[in-house]
Amino acid sequence: MPRLRISGQPTVQLQPYHSYRFGSSPIVELQIEHESVEQFHGALGVSPDFVVRLVAWSGKVYVNGEDVAAKDIGFEIADDRGFVELRFGDVPAELYFESTMYEDTDSGYEDGYRGAPPFD
């Protein structure tokens, strides 16, 4: 399953069929306390085939440096380690796709891990 890591926060394993709101509001699932993040900044959801749908509501969202309003993110746009660079306002984040989710991208590691996690 894809994992999301927002700068300064623990990694979250994203579950298929779930939606996650993110922003500075205390009622969202992924709270980000930063001046560049709106209360209801955006949302993301995960499909059964592990594609992440990312939607900006009232704030800026970037995928691999591109400003997007909405984007479907799959393993095919990840780098060779399985990471997709995200940014919510000025807050960096990364989406990680385990290679074991995809038969043709085996990393050689039993758990599919392909590199050191960011922000450590």
Automatic annotation (TrEMBL):
Residue ranges annotated for the Mutator 2 fork head associated domain, each copy included: 4-96
Highest rank taxon of the organism: Eukaryota
Alphabetical list of Pfam families matching this protein: MU2_FHA (PF18221)
Gene3D superfamilies: 2.60.200.20
UniProt-recorded name of the protein: Uncharacterized protein LOC115628891
The organism of origin for this protein: Drosophila lebanonensis
